[in-house]
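BACKBONE GEOMETRY TOKENS:
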Amino acid sequence: MLLAGSVTLGHAIVTLTEWKFHTGDDAAWADPHFNDAAWEAVDLTPSSPDAHDGDVGLTGWVTGWGARGHAGYTGFAWYRTRVVLTTPPTDALAVLGPLQVDDAYQLFIDGRLAGGAGDFSTTPPTVYNTKPRLFALSPVSDTVVIAIRVWARPRALIGDPSGGGIRIAPELGQAAAVRAQYDLQWLEKFNGYIVDCVEGLGFIPVAIVVLILMQFDTADRGYWWLIVALLLIGARRENQAVFFWLPFESRPMFDIVTVTLLIPLMTGAWVMAWRAWFGVRRPAWIPAAVGVLTALLMIAQYAHAATLAQVVRLALATLLIAITGMGVRRQGREAWLAVPAVGLVAMSLFPTEISLLRIPGIWFPFGVGVSRTEYAIAALLIAMPALLVHRLLAFAPHHIRNR
């Protein structure tokens, strides 16, 4: 016996919350005549009307199978639902795929593969970020069986033990209404990452200001570290938008580019940049230590060695604090002007450690989720140019007098 529900459709759309669920994988489970009576029932109704993810505030968020009796499970699993339609025969219908899935899915309508998110031609499937998907629905009867095959990669539950499977339920309805909801989902997705996109580009003019400063402060070549740090943190923010908006960057590629390369490199570059800014030359082993720690962090990120990565991040954070302290002792008031910028950089480099201070990770101005890191980056884009202009004004008059 299949899970049955009765849905009346007109110029409307409904969320498909009642499903049957089973871990494992079998092509027969796509068959509309398959008997799933023994499968467990799953309700994908959000716990509250304002339930959302912890990243950008995608609405309709539900816990995954990790919180539904399958803690630690990764791999394949299936969802099935049977919908009885009461709708005029002339109405065009459509299904809106789940907006968020851990981590890839294929959607079958009456046994026919309609599409999905991710590349299932590889073993294991190649994961891409889930984006809004529309599927035309042309039922041959008043009953439709929808089956969703999900793949959760081995790292799916890292950082979120409640994850796995569908996190935002699919929707079904009159095609025009579904299309409108599809557009709203894309708008929500766009709004969620437009801040990252704008902030990433914002570091380019800041780097140009550093280049201008170098024309006046010609004795200090350490500014190159600051340029590299600014461009790396900008690239890290920009790649966030690329991954979540565009279709060509897979999750493994994102992990290599952002997690393994950009995050460790920008962390090491910022420690070196602040060392140069504060004029800290002793102890002489600091550059070598930063290089070794950056390499270790890259290895730990690539190997998914969470404990090692945390130890290395704490070591780099300790170095940053020590360098700032030495800079304050060396430069006095001038160094204190840079301390707020150092703090803002630290908030963006060490979000996991900052969370231990119980500072909220996301806010919703105007209904759009903006993360704590995005706020820190926005403030940095104000503080850093101000700091650079202050130093530029200190050198420019002297440079002009000597011309």
In short: The mean pLDDT is 88. The first helix runs from residue 175 to 216. DSSP finds nine helices and 15 strands in the chain. The domain at 4-169 is CATH 2.60.120.260 (Jelly Rolls).
